[in-house]
Amino acid sequence: MEFNKAIIDTTAEFVCAFKPQYAFYGAKYVDGITALRDTIHYIHKKYPDIPVVLDAKRNDIGNTSEKYATEVFDVLKADAVTINPYLGQDACQPFLDRKDKKIICFWNSFFILLSTFLKFIKRKKYEWKYDRWFNSQ
C-alpha cells in the first residue's frame, strides 16, 4: 500500500484519473483485492476530485454482469469501469443502469488475434445482429 500511496501522491497533480488494473491485484487473491479496495479508498479520501477508473473489462451474461457491477461499484467503490461491448447489451446493462457511475467501452483492440478476427469478419462481409453472425451475401 505504501508503494501505491507514493505513486498516487507523486502523480496526483498531473493526472485526470487513476486507472488501476484489476488483474494485478486479483492475482494476489485476498491480499490483492484488499490492497485495491484500500488504494481506491485512499484516492477518494486524499484526492476526492480525481476519479478512479477500474481497468477490469468486467462483464458477462446479464446476471453475472450484475454481480460484477456490484463488486466494482459497491464493494470496491470505483467511479468508472472498463467493459467489453462485444458481449451485447444484456452484458452492459447492469453498468449502464448505474446512472451515477461511468463506463468506458473498448471498441478496437490492439490484440493481434482480435484484430485479425475482425478483419476476417469484415472481409467475409459478416454482420453482427441479434447476438449471432449472419453472412450478408
Describe the secondary-structure layout:
Layout: H1 2-11, H2 22-26, H3 29-46, E1 53-54, H4 62-75, E2 80-83, H5 89-96, E3 102-105, H6 112-123, E4 126-129, E5 132-135
Parallel strand pairs: 1-2, 2-3
Antiparallel strand pairs: 4-5
Helix pairs in contact: 4-5
CATH architecture label name of the largest domain: Alpha-Beta Barrel
The count of helical stretches stands at 6
In CATH terms, the superfamily of the largest domain is Aldolase class I
Work out the count of structural domains: 2
Order of helices and strands: HHHEHEHEHEE
- Order of strands, main sheet, comes to 1-2-3
Share of β-strand residues: 5-15%
Looking at the structure, what is the overall shape? globular
Largest sheet: 3 strands, parallel
Number of strands: 5
CATH class of the largest domain: Alpha Beta
Kindly report how far apart the N and C termini lie: 56 Å
Mean pLDDT: 82
Pick out its properties.
137 residues; TIM Barrel; globular; alpha/beta; three-stranded parallel sheet
Describe the protein's architecture and organization.
There is one protein chain. The protein is of the alpha/beta class. The protein folds into 2 domains: 2-106, Alpha-Beta Barrel (TIM Barrel), CATH 3.20.20.70; 109-137, no CATH class. It is 49% helix and 13% strand. The protein is built from 6 helices and 5 strands, in the order H-H-H-E-H-E-H-E-H-E-E. It has a 3-stranded parallel sheet with strand order 1-2-3, covered by helices on one side. Strand 1, helix 4 (62-75) and strand 2 form a beta-alpha-beta unit. Residues 125-137 have low confidence and may be disordered.
